[in-house]
UniProtKB/TrEMBL annotation:
Listed name of the protein: Aspartyl/glutamyl-tRNA(Asn/Gln) amidotransferase subunit C
UniProt superkingdom: Bacteria
Assembly with partners or alone: Heterotrimer of A, B and C subunits.
HAMAP family: GatC
Function: Allows the formation of correctly charged Asn-tRNA(Asn) or Gln-tRNA(Gln) through the transamidation of misacylated Asp-tRNA(Asn) or Glu-tRNA(Gln) in organisms which lack either or both of asparaginyl-tRNA or glutaminyl-tRNA synthetases. The reaction takes place in the presence of glutamine and ATP through an activated phospho-Asp-tRNA(Asn) or phospho-Glu-tRNA(Gln).
EC supergroup of this enzyme: ligase
UniProt organism field: Pseudoroseicyclus aestuarii
Phylogenetic classification of the source organism: Bacteria, Pseudomonadati, Pseudomonadota, Alphaproteobacteria, Rhodobacterales
EC number annotated for this UniProt entry: 6.3.5.-
Reaction catalyzed: L-glutamyl-tRNA(Gln) + L-glutamine + ATP + H2O = L-glutaminyl-tRNA(Gln) + L-glutamate + ADP + phosphate + H(+); L-aspartyl-tRNA(Asn) + L-glutamine + ATP + H2O = L-asparaginyl-tRNA(Asn) + L-glutamate + ADP + phosphate + 2 H(+)
């Protein structure tokens, strides 16, 4: 795949990066170099290689996925401008 100046212009616009017209050829070349490197990575044989999180072997910390109230409802409600019966009170919007 090859990136031309038009595609580089479009990518820059989507990324909200201002690129001068004179810099578009160099940007397109950089994109092509990046894509070439990615293609090289695709040629690497990774059969049997375990995915890893870090270069040092470690196990990710996990916890049970349990719904709780956070354990401090009064502290949370203390930030509310108006709280009633353990809930945030807000003005009525829809009639």
């Amino acid at each position: 795949m090859s990136i031309d100046e038009g595609t580089a212009r479009r990518v820059a616009r989507l990324a909200r990066i201002r690129v001068e017209e004179t810099d578009l050829p160099a940007l397109a070349q950089e994109f092509n170099a990046i894509l070439g490197f990615i293609e090289q990575l695709g040629e690497v044989d990774v059969e049997g290689v375990e995915p890893m999180v870090s270069v040092t072997p470690m196990r990710l910390k996990r916890r049970d996925d349990v719904v709780t109230d956070g354990g401090q409802p009064q502290a949370v409600l203390s930030n509310a401008p108006d709280a009633r019966e353990g809930f945030f009170a807000v003005p009525k919007v829809v009639e």
